[in-house]
Amino acid sequence: MTPELRHLAMAVPDPAQRWYRDRWPWLLIAGPAIVVVAGFATAWLAWSTDDGVVADDYYRRGLLINRQLERSGRGEALGLGAVLDVGPDGVVALALSGSAVDAATPATVRVRLTHATRAGLDRTATLARGANGSYTGRIDPPPPGRWLVSVETDLWRLPTVEVGGAVRAVRLGTARAVD
Fold first, then answer.
1. Is the pTM of this model over 0.70?
2. At 81, is the secondary structure helix, strand, or coil?
């Protein structure tokens, strides 16, 4: 046999070697197989988790947002401010300040501490006005973290403030220092 023919004979694949022993079919099969597994994983995630963003009553929620914006505008128009302090034992103290504080002091005020990422940690308290004009109440002590603090009534609302760490001496609106 001449060397040219020997070279051609070596290029012919061995018929006894099976296809699954070669790496190329597996590389070609791996891509679609990975896509199928990822598709099943995505379908499982979609089926097992809650779509918390979607709301059935989106129109009503939009109307409520408009009312909240109106109340925020009233709080700014009245020139109200507040200093909020939450003690480690959960005692909440709120002092209102501003030009129209006498006209806008209801018997109770709502304080909301909304966790930035976990809705289950949110806190709400209704504070009652004391004899000295400040508001006091109790709330579950918030753990350290990022909190959105808001103070509101049925008539007005102060702008929300973001607080990192402990909720101590938080100034809302046009608050001035309270002695």
1. no
2. strand
